[in-house]
Amino acid sequence: MGILGTRRRRLLAGVAGLGAVVATLPLWLGAGATGEGASRCETFAAQSAARAAAVSGSGAPVLVVGDSYSAGLGLDDLTTSWPARLPGEVHVAGFSGSGFSPGASSCGARVAYDRRAPEALARLAADDPAGADDAVVVLEGGLNDVDQPSGEIAAGFERLLAGLEGHRVVVVGPPLAPERAAAVPRVDALLGELARAHGAAYVATSGLDLTYLPDRLHLTPEGHRVFGDHVAAALSAGRPAR
């Protein structure tokens, strides 16, 4: 396929992804978000759709499922969030505030990873069936799970991995964001154990020297660069980066 054909395919895929997210917005809101929470969820859904429409790179397909770090919350340009640093044709399914456990998000269980990952793969398959089968799936998160019981995180992780059978899976753990640093080690260790139990690579980010926005939680553009390059090195090496 020529360059113009590739660009046209990406544009159509982006529009389709935007439509899919907008179409499912009532389902997300119906999962429990009301009032101010609904407005917040609407904002997150719009940002998620915008980020999903921006496919970057070329080569083997990579699907990133993640939280606000993947969605680019706090950045002037959402499309520069850390997945843009990864090798391959990168598709992003990020939703701010979401996590591995169904209770991680105030927008309801509908946005948990085990629900969104299969939908993102289905959208990818609709555009490129052969590519979807070979896609590497990168699961980034954990910061929104820090107040959730370990059993809920593990159960969500098990459901998630069950739906990704046959794919190379890379799990990217949470960094020591100052706002939640004290609660990160438990989730970091748990996700590492779960990943290894399923034969998935685990990329720890708790040792990275990252820069944060004034909220002491979300990354600056430079923080995204360091975070993304760290994950990219792990993907390129085909093994976890510690």
List the helices and strands and how they pair.
Blueprint: H1 3-29, H2 36-52, E1 61-66, H3 68-71, E2 89-94, H4 113-127, H5 129-134, E3 136-140, H6 150-162, E4 169-172, H7 184-197, E5 201-203, H8 221-237
Name the features.
242 residues; alpha/beta; Rossmann fold; 8 helices; 5 strands; 10% strand; globular; disordered N terminus
Major beta sheet, specifics?
5 strands, parallel
Silhouette: globular
Determine the number of helices (DSSP H or I, runs of at least 4 residues). Answer: 8
The residue-averaged pLDDT reads 87
Distance between the termini: 38 Å
Number of domains: 1
CATH architecture: 3-Layer(aba) Sandwich
CATH superfamily: SGNH hydrolase
User: What's the Cα radius of gyration?
Assistant: 16 Å
Q: Helices and strands: which structural class?
A: alpha/beta
Helicity range: 40-55%
Order of helices and strands: HHEHEHHEHEHEH
Q: Strand-residue fraction?
A: 5-15%
Number of strands: 5
> What do we call the CATH topology?
Rossmann fold
Low-pLDDT ranges? 1-34
Give the strand order, joined by hyphens, for the main sheet: 2-1-3-4-5
CATH class (first level) name? Alpha Beta
Report what the structure shows.
The protein is α/β, with parallel strands linked by helices and 242 residues long. The chain contains 8 helices and 5 strands, in the order H-H-E-H-E-H-H-E-H-E-H-E-H. It has helices at 3-29, 36-52, 68-71, 113-127, 129-134, 150-162, 184-197, 221-237; strands at residues 61-66, 89-94, 136-140, 169-172, 201-203. Helix 6 links the parallel strand 3 and strand 4 (169-172). Helix 1 runs antiparallel to helix 2 (36-52), helix 4 runs parallel beside helix 6 and helix 6 (150-162) packs parallel to helix 7 (184-197). The radius of gyration is 16 Å and the shape is globular. One of its GO terms (molecular function) is hydrolase activity. It holds the Pfam family Lipase_GDSL_2. Residues 64-226 form the SGNH hydrolase-type esterase domain.
